[in-house]
Structure formats: structure tokens, C-alpha cells
Design goal:
With about 325 residues, the chain is of the alpha/beta class. The chain is built from ten helices and 14 strands. Strands 3-2-1-4-5-6-11 form a seven-stranded parallel β-sheet, sandwiched between helices. Strands 12-9-14 form a three-stranded mixed β-sheet. A two-stranded parallel sheet has the order 7-10. The longest helix is centred in the first third of the chain and has 22 residues. It starts with a strand and ends in a 5-residue tail after the last helix. The chain binds uridine-5'-diphosphate-4-deoxy-4-fluoro-alpha-D-galactose. The site of uridine-5'-diphosphate-4-deoxy-4-fluoro-alpha-D-galactose has 20 residues, from helix 6 and strand 8. InterPro entries: Epimerase_deHydtase, NAD(P)-bd_dom_sf, UDP_G4E. Its cofactor is NAD(+). GO terms for molecular function: UDP-glucose 4-epimerase activity. Its EC number is 5.1.3.2. This is UDP-glucose 4-epimerase.
């Protein structure tokens, strides 16, 4: 049984990982400033309100809970915001990790599971993307995540830390019992936005671009169920606890769905059509981003079990219906 300090554990992926940790008997201690996370998503251990940019907040949490390992989800993730406010992203996403690494060193804690992203690749040369693809991120967000990966490599080389950088493709879905799910504000992700428009909880969805070089002209993404992601975090933590020094792995499914295919799945699951307006391409959207999973299979024994697109939407829909007060 491990005690794990989960930075950003009140957020979307972090809260699902906390649930998975608790389910196998570990204790997740959530450390979160609640700037975008939700106190109501912290159900499986204590909540420490603190900021990753504060050494004293972090030192207090390490002293009080003496964690065996750290998982880090506390970052700014909205790609468009990063383009407008790069300094805020660099301060939090990179500065915050530097402060965290200092606190880990003082506390003598080495294992760190870090949320990275397929955004580190930018426009890949080849899809599905392998971890050996050149990293040339095209957004501030992607560059901050890549900068942290480089920093972690440097520290792991001298034995300061042992780390896993998990490069998520499109995290989606919700806890199957509907108790936690995706609650971003603003919401920019496709599946919640499609469900919202289908349920008439907002206006029409904006569909960004139908002129990509793909099978139906819309972007293809690799949607992976958040509970499958959670399992990969547990496997990564176990490897690090057992002495592994460095893991870099893509987390997706290996195949993709286009925006229009997602809307068809929404209709299959909900019986509702998503009304949409076609808009121009969104800046920075690559045509196709899918993961080659060979490496994750090998190093983490990663096998997505809940990630077919309909299952993802069933779980997302259950959660959103509850939060939007829809009874049908
Ligand atoms: N899309 C729409 N309308 C919407 C939302 C999205 O048409 O309202 C389209 C996007 O243009 C894109 C696809 O749906 O083609 C998926 O978009 P998401 O915003 O759901 O996901 P992204 O692929 O843009 O984002 C993911 C991660 C980010 C990460 C990014 C890197 O969620 O954290 O990949 O490319 F930075």
C-alpha cells in the first residue's frame, strides 16, 4: 500500500487516478489549488489546498503525509489560453514542476508520474506516432510539457528522480458509475461539447474544419477512456517503485475516430443528433493524431479495455446527464 501525493487530483484525469489508486488500497493525498479542479471530485483521501508554485505549501504536504511517490496533473491545459498567456503557462507548468522537484529532493521522494501529452509531437512525420517521433510542439502548452520532459530526463540521469512521462492522446469518458467526469470551464473538448449541443444544453457545436486530408475531411483523434489512462498510471507507479528509472509512453488506443464519426457515435448512444455549424480550422489542429501503442504495451502492459468510442460516450453521457439534470 502506497501513499501517493496527487498534484491536481481534483481535476479530470487526476480524480479518476485517485479513484483507481484507492480501489487497490493505496492512499491518494490530493494537493490542488482548485483553480480548475473541484473539491467534490476529491473522494478517496484528504485534500490539501496548496499551490505547486509554493515551496512551503509543498514542504508541508510532504512532511505531513510522507508520500511514497508523486503524480503530477496540476497544469494549465487549454491550448488557446497558452497562446495568449505564455508566461502564465510557463510559470505553472514548468516553474511549478521545478518547485515540486525541489520539494521532492528535500523530502527524499523519487518516483514521479508526470502527465504529458501527444501535443509534444506537434505535426508528426508519421502516424500512428511512436515515442521515437521527433518532438516539435506547435503550441505553448506542448512546449511547456516537452520542457518538463527534458528536465526530468536530466534529473533521472543523475538518479535524482525516477519518472514516467505519460503522453496522453485524447482523454475522454468518465467513471462508469457516473460519480466523476469531465468538468472543464471553459470546455473545449469535442465529446462534452458534442453531448452538450445534442442535449440542447447550449447552442450548436462548432465543428472546426471539414477540409482536412482525412477519410471524411474532419480531424482524426485517438480517444482513450480516462479509466484506462488511470490503469496506466498505476502500472507506471509500480514500475518506478520497483526501481525503473525512466518511462516515456504514449497512451491512446492505436486507432482514431474523426469528428464526424464521434458525432455518429453520440447519436447511436444518446439517440440525439448533434447540431453543428462548420467553422474554419482551429489553429494548431493536426489532421491525424493516433498513438502507436507497442511501447506502452511492452513497458506498462497497457491494454485499453473501455476505450471503444461508444463505451467512452456511454460513460461520458451518464455523467453529463447527471450534472446537467437530464433525466431521460
Ligand atoms: N472539435 C470541434 N469542436 C469542438 C471541439 C473540438 O470540432 O467544440 C474538434 C477539434 O478541432 C479536433 C477534435 O475535435 O479536431 C478534437 O478536439 P479536442 O479539443 O477534443 O482535442 P484535441 O485533440 O485538440 O486536444 C487534445 C488534448 C489536449 C492536447 C491536444 C494536443 O485534449 O490537451 O490534444 O493536440 F493539447
Amino acid at each position: 500500500m502506497n501513499t501517493v501525493l496527487v498534484l491536481g487530483g481534483a481535476g479530470y484525469v487526476g480524480s479518476h487516478v485517485c479513484k483507481a489508486l484507492a480501489a487497490r488500497g493505496d492512499t491518494p493525498v490530493v494537493f490542488d489549488n482548485l483553480s480548475s479542479g473541484h473539491a467534490h471530485a476529491v473522494k478517496w483521501g484528504p485534500l490539501v489546498r496548496g499551490d505547486i508554485r509554493s515551496s512551503s505549501d509543498l514542504d508541508c504536504a510532504f512532511a505531513k503525509y510522507r508520500p511514497d511517490g508523486v503524480m503530477h496533473f496540476a497544469a494549465n491545459i487549454e491550448v488557446g489560453e497558452g497562446e495568449k498567456e505564455p508566461l502564465r503557462f510557463w510559470e505553472n507548468n514548468v516553474g511549478g514542476v521545478i518547485t515540486l522537484l525541489g520539494a521532492m529532493a528535500r523530502a527524499g521522494v523519487k518516483p514521479l508520474v508526470f502527465s504529458s501529452t501527444c501535443a509534444v509531437y506537434g505535426e508528426p512525420n508519421l502516424v500512428p506516432i511512436t515515442e521515437t517521433e521527433t518532438c516539435k510542439p506547435v503550441s505553448v502548452y506542448g512546449r511547456t510539457k516537452r520542457a518538463v520532459e527534458i528536465l526530468l530526463t536530466d534529473l533521472a540521469r543523475i538518479g535524482e528522480i525516477r519518472y514516467a512521462a505519460l503522453r496522453y492522446f485524447n482523454a475522454a469518458g468518465a467513471s462508469p458509475n457516473g460519480e466523476i467526469g469531465e468538468e472543464h470551464d471553459p470546455e473545449t473538448h469535442l465529446i462534452p461539447n458534442a453531448l452538450k449541443a445534442a442535449a440542447s444544453v447550449g447552442g450548436k457545436m462548432k465543428l472546426f474544419g471539414t477540409d482536412y486530408d482525412t477519410r471524411d475531411g474532419t480531424c482524426i483523434r485517438d480517444y482513450v477512456h480516462v479509466m484506462d489512462l488511470a490503469d496506466a498510471h498505476l502500472a507506471a507507479l509500480d514500475k518506478l517503485m520497483a526501481g525503473e528509472r525512466e518511462i516515456i509512453a504514449n497512451l491512446g488506443t492505436g486507432h482514431g475516430a474523426s469528428v464526424l464519426e464521434v458525432l455518429q457515435a453520440v447519436e447511436r448512444v444518446t439517440g440525439l443528433k448533434t447540431p453543428y455549424d462548420v467553422r474554419p480550422r482551429r489553429d494548431g489542429d493536426a489532421a491525424v493524431l493516433t498513438a502507436d501503442l507497442e511501447h506502452a504495451r511492452r513497458v506498462l502492459d497497457f491494454k485499453p479495455k473501455m476505450s471503444d468510442i461508444d463505451s467512452i460516450i456511454v460513460d461520458a453521457w451518464r455523467f453529463h446527464k447527471k450534472t446537467w439534470g437530464i433525466s431521460r
